[in-house]
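User: Thanks for the earlier help. One more: Short chain oxidoreductase. Can you show the sequence and predicted structure together?

Assistant: Of course, both are below.
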Amino acid sequence: MASYLVTGASRGLGLALVQQLAARPATEVASIVATARQPRELPSLVEASRGRIAYVPLDTTSASSVAEAVDRIQRTHGNLDVLINNAGVGSYTRGGVTEMDATDLTDVMNTNVTGTHRVTQAFLPLLRRGTRKSIVNISTTMASLDKAQTYKDMPVPAYRISKAALNMLTVQYAHALADEGFACFAVSPGWLRTDLGGSRADLSAEQGADAVLDIVREANTAQNGKFLNVRVPGWENHEGLNQYDGRELPW
């Protein structure tokens, strides 16, 4: 039985992750801590879960908010097995990087990179007491330097830059925690139909969540320090921009 913490859990992929974790048997998923700045749709899920889901307010950009969340979860749960760093923001910049506002880049980096570090560092003592010791950072294929040319026309430079930095943060944690038996890795969930991905995206949030959890469920130290693509049946050899083949992605 594993305990999970999901950040950015009130909508999109985060909400779908919580829903699908709650649908798994209690012998597999003992408890889910769903964190977000605002609960949105979470209260109904919490009520229906009969104690398996707990909502905890958490703003990843606020050190005091993170500290309060750690204190509360330590008192109620004691330890954690899996941390899914899903909270993130994006921004569109017409004209690309040459038109990108520096303040916008700073704001996106603060959430997608600094916020992830703040949360991971703060919850590390609880994860060290867990048995699974998994840290999962939600990234994107658009952050791959190898694939930069493929996505060169996407008008989201701040998002891509921040996720590339997140990938390096992932590797740094993987190296630092390897001797403790951690699996710290990045996952691209695919282009999802969410507020961030838009209505024209390839996959539903539910498909993305299911594919991410397939990876998380089987994760062990062999995944430590890797950048993984989800696998979605029928999308392995798709002729379009994106393929979801379950393979390791190039940094």
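User: Great, one quick takeaway?

Assistant: The mean pLDDT is 96.
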